[in-house]
Amino acid sequence: MELAAPPRLVYYPNSSPLPKHSVKVSQRPLASTPTSFAEHPSFSLNSGLLLRTSRYPHRLVACAASVADNGSTITASPSGAGARIGEVKRVTKETNVAVKINLDGSGVAENNTGIPFLDHMLDQLASHGLFDVHVKATGDIHIDDHHTNEDVALAIGTAFLQALGDRKGINRFGDFSAPLDEALVHVALDLSGRPHLGYDLRIPTQRVGAYDTQLVEHFFQSLVNTSGMTLHIRQLAGRNSHHIIEATFKAFARALRQATEYDPRRHGTVPSSKGVLSRS
User: Fold this and answer.
1) Are 213 and 203 in contact (CB under 8 A)?
2) Which of 1, 114, 195, 278 has its CA at a distance of 20 to 30 angstroms from the CA of residue 212?
3) At what angle do helices 146-164 and 116-129 cross, to 10 degrees?
4) pTM of the predicted structure, to 2 decimals
5) pLDDT mean across residues, the chain
């Protein structure tokens, strides 16, 4: 296979065609390049054997790489970082919960908790946080949804804790207000390692479908306890219970997405003046 490639990293205006050189791409393993990709979480290969970053599409960096005949995209994690995935199984006499979360996902949601409204809210977490969220749970919902709701949240919080690792290079803080028709909910959070929930929702009905709306606060309290985050939820407007709760999960997803994303200016350092973010 032969590809055309420019001889060096030079920007050529559109009016000036690129000089073409014939190169052969070896399928053998190549030595790693000294270029640091700490600021570039994903890359695509252009026709000149240069990497164009998704975050900075106008910058090109040289790269040795093997190329599939179909021109498939090459992806890479920040330097020194693997996939940020948390996987947790929680089994008690009341519930059996399995959770897998990928912080660097694409919004895949596969949720089956036995509580349809909770599944719908977890879908919002995946879709608006761009996390891959896989939750499967069975529990004593013939009694009520309390234990399953709680244990799912505990497992999700633990999965986030596991996926975050040492939290090097992340933004740490997230802040988002989400409207849904007449409802407006603001969420601010800090991945500090210190669990705290500030909760101020005024949900006007006791149930949305079969879901007990008291379980919303209990869900977030349980998630906060195991993830070690500081979370503040404030309702700014709203009359419809479904809208208020869904706006809350959407705002939480977007704020959490902000907080877990990498800050390229930190160069992989811990976002704390203490130099460490500890769950304890």
Assistant:
1) yes
2) 195
3) 20
4) 0.71
5) 79
Query: Computed from CA positions of residues 180, 183, 184, 186, in that sequence, does the dihedral angle turn out positive or negative?
Result: negative
Rounded distance, CA 255 to CA 8, Å? 41
Q: Where are the alpha helices (DSSP H) in the chain?
A: 116-129, 146-164, 214-227, 241-260
Looking at per-residue confidence, does 2 or 278 come out higher?
278
DSSP H helices, 165-213, are none
DSSP for 236-250 reads EE---HHHHHHHHHH
Q: Tokens 């790489």 sit at which residue?
A: 65
**Cα gap 268→246, rounded to integer Å:** 34
State whether residue 265 is helix, strand or coil.
helix
pLDDT in tens, 167-208: 888 999 999 999 999 999 999 999 988 999 999 999 999 999
Distance CA 57, CA 43 (A): 9
Cα torsion through 82, 224, 149, 256, rounded to 10: -50
By DSSP bridging, strand 85-91 and strand 95-102 are antiparallel
Contacts of 188 (CB under 8 A, 6+ apart): 173, 174, 175, 231, 232, 255
User: Which class for 26: exposed (0-12), middle (13-18), buried (19 or more C-beta within 10 A)?
Assistant: exposed
178, β-bridge pairs:
185
Tokens read off for 23: 């190169």
